[in-house]
Amino acid sequence: MKLRLQRMLWLLAGWLCLLLALIGALLPVMPTTVFVLMAAACFGRSSPALLHWLHHHPRLGPPLLQWQRYHGMTARTKAVALGTVALSFSFSIYATLQQPWLTALLLLVWAALSLWMWRLPKIPATSACCAMLDSKS
Predict the structure, then answer these.
(1) Stretch 29-41: mean pLDDT, rounded?
(2) Which of 12, 70, 64, 9 minimizes the C-alpha distance to 34?
(3) No. of helices (H) and no. of strands (E), the chain
(4) Looking at residue 130, what is its pLDDT?
(5) How far apart are CA 130 and CA 96, in angstroms?
(6) Which of 60, 58, 76 has its CA nearest to residue 127?
(7) Mind listing the pLDDT tens digit for each residue in 42-87?
(8) What is the three-class DSSP state of 122?
(9) Radius of gyration of the chain (CA)
């Protein structure tokens, strides 16, 4: 019974992460990829069928497989991600200029996130293509 409850909680967490990823795809201030990665981890503990579906999803599957196999991203993906982060943090910082401590905190988080992302390995586009082709099988 305890195992079944754990599995249901992981499943619920996976769906919640997927919902947050969908919201993140629509809102510039919320991440998408992080929530897709978390959904995959949750589905991996609760539902092999849903994990399989996520891996083979035409939009979500290829980046997920790239991350799981290479722990990096293509140069194009990295550029888009860094640009999106810069844009969303710029809006947030502008909105908090009246609160210097919050502005400083946002700048610190932005710098840390950008540095982490910048240091991730760049995978060749051919590896990304291979991950996409492998996900079709």
Answers:
(1) 83
(2) 64
(3) 7, 0
(4) 54
(5) 43
(6) 76
(7) 999 999 999 999 999 998 888 888 888 888 888 888 888 888 888 8
(8) strand
(9) 17
User: Which candidate, 84, 63, 59, places its Cα nearest to that of 72?
Assistant: 63
Average of per-residue pLDDT across 101-111: 94
- Where would I find the beta strands (DSSP E) of the chain? none
b/e 54-81 (16+ beta carbons within 10 angstroms → b): bbeeeebbbbbbbbeebebbbeebbeeb
- By C-alpha distance, which of 80, 11, 9 is closest to 48? 11
pLDDT of residue 88: 83
In this structure, the chain runs to a length of 137
Contact 35, 21 (CB under 8 A): yes
Give 73's strand partners: 122
